[in-house]
UniProtKB/TrEMBL annotation:
Keywords from the named record: DNA-binding, Homeobox, Nucleus, Repeat, Transcription, Transcription regulation
Keyword Secreted on entry: no
InterPro entries on file: Homeodomain-like_sf (IPR009057), Myb_dom (IPR017930), MYB_TF (IPR050560), SANT/Myb (IPR001005)
Principal location listed in the UniProt entry: nucleus
Species of origin: Artemisia annua
Localization of this protein: Nucleus
PROSITE patterns: HTH_MYB, MYB_LIKE
Native organism taxonomy: Eukaryota, Viridiplantae, Streptophyta, Embryophyta, Tracheophyta
Pfam families in the record: Myb_DNA-bind_6
Nucleus as UniProt keyword: yes
GO-annotated molecular function: DNA-binding transcription factor activity, RNA polymerase II-specific; RNA polymerase II cis-regulatory region sequence-specific DNA binding
Gene3D superfamilies: Homeodomain-like
UniProt protein name: Homeodomain-like protein
One Gene Ontology CC term in the entry: nucleus
Length: 146
């Protein structure tokens, strides 16, 4: 087995044909028909990029609420949570736009970074409207001063 790097469009097309012919099951047999690709590589390519059942649309508000509720229930057990979203990719569930606050895998406290960014933008706009003074220190290049 050799490392092939990026998938070419012709390899993607061949993988689609093989999955249509054999089904998304025996990945080692499928990989034998793709020069230099492993069964694992074929399986990951199919389930993460090529499977037409993948829902690539952003999470709806209802899905976000379900995701946060499942995270509170299961902690960082992303494989278990991803099974509850069969039309989403495992990675899109795991790497949704929030991160755990601490490293305790059973902790359910999370920060929704997208909402946090929105709040920060609103706060900055409010400060600008109130005419807050600019407290940044100007840069002085002492090496170029005569």
């Amino acid at each position: 087995m050799c490392s092939r790097g990026h998938w070419r469009p012709s390899e993607d097309q061949k993988l689609r044909q093989l999955v249509q012919q054999y089904g998304p099951h025996n990945w080692n047999a499928i990989a034998e028909k793709l020069q230099g690709r492993s069964g694992k590589s074929c399986r990951l390519r199919w389930f993460n990029q090529l499977d037409p059942k993948i829902n690539r649309s952003p999470f709806t508000e209802e899905e976000e609420e379900r995701l946060l509720a499942y995270h509170r229930e299961f902690g960082n057990r992303w494989a278990n949570i991803a099974k509850l979203f069969p039309d989403k990719r495992d990675r899109s569930v795991e790497f949704y736009n929030f991160l755990p606050v601490n490293t305790d895998s059973n902790s359910s406290e999370v920060i929704d970074h997208q909402r946090k960014d929105e709040v920060e933008v609103e706060q900055e706009a409010t400060e600008e409207q109130q005419g807050s003074t600019n407290t940044t220190v100007p840069f002085i290049d002492f090496l170029s001063v005569n």
